[in-house]
Amino acid sequence: MKKFIETIRNIISIEDLRVRIINTLVLILIYRLGSYVVLPGIDSDALQQANNDSSGIAGIINLFSGGAFSRASIFALGIMPYISASIVIQLLGMAIPFFQRLQKEGESGRNKISQYTRLLTILITAAQAPGYLASQVPSNAIDNPGSFFFISSTIILIAGTMFVMWLGERITDKGLGNGTSLIIMIGIIADLPFAFAAEFISRLEDQGGGLVIFLVEMVFLLLVVILTILLVQGTRRIPVQFAKKIVGNRQYGGNRQYIPLKVNAAGVMPIIFAQAIMFVPLTIVSYANSETLTGVMAAFADFTGFWYNFTFALLIVVFTYFYTAVAINPNQMADDLKRNGGFIPGVKPGKKTSEYLDSIMSRITLPGSLFLALVAILPAFAMIFGVNNKFAQFFGGTSLLILVGVVLDTLQQIESHLLMRHYDGLMKSGRIKGRSNLSMAS
To answer: What range does the domain containing 151 cover?
Structure first.
């Protein structure tokens, strides 16, 4: 405890770090206040009484927006259109030569890609806003429904999304951590106390040892968080030796470093892609007239059913391999090593190094993808055992992975500030020696 207090004092004593923390908190506060500002012309009381859809894609967006989606806030669409635009631009960079050239142009190329991402964000928001107003805002909650309301509200929703995107960029530049990820994390955390309280109250009302069951749930949740941290942080370190060079009277190189290959290099992207595909059966069930087709699709639309979770897990494994293969290029890594005078001990440079790295990635991706699939379907198991629907979302899935990933990333940034000034850090992992400067696998 004494060491922790001393670390907090060290954090406060570093002016740059203190200013970044304050900037982050202020910008997050602005975002949270804006999420409660309802669109003009909407009766918030009538909106609360309406039976809004809290399942499927709507429930996920509402979770990520911290409830702004269900409140018809000016930030209702939140940061999700920007994330969608970023994914589209990233996929275009893998297939279209124009975007591939921009990615190789350094700072100027990244600036152009950022501009294209912002323009695409506006287009996506403009397409989503009318659909959101038509499907999520009932007509009895609108004071004066008409063309002017829909046009003005669409413009406000576009402006709100762009403002949230700007807040995320300011957090990244002037604060701590990745701004976009922090905004999503804050939206998820905002719902956690209410889900926790609802589960606690429901267990207290249970006369058959409900408090004991609640304590068991807390222990299980802690274990899941620990395992998720291991998944996010797990790496296979490949030793790399650099050739010695003598320039004048000094010797350069000759030291051993490591390439950290992540067990889960794909992050949460496989879950997001798989979840998008699993919403297709829900859409078919909603609109299909055929009883046979509806019956077949209903088996894949049950969140707690076997076929839904089996298919969901299988898609996550497939997408993990796909996204890892796209994100990590063993040939480029081998070429970079050879160009910098580095080699893996016992492996010939060039093609043999590429094949060796590819085989290592294939071996570590399998357990990583299986564990990622397990984490993704854990909320379904929690609901089967009677856990509250909202609280069950924190037992795994995208929510937990985002929470763990963002918290660890933010702590590592604080750690780097402390270590730069020769203070003891918050995490022991920050003091591991011999960390590779080769970020090709990250």
So the answer is: 14-176
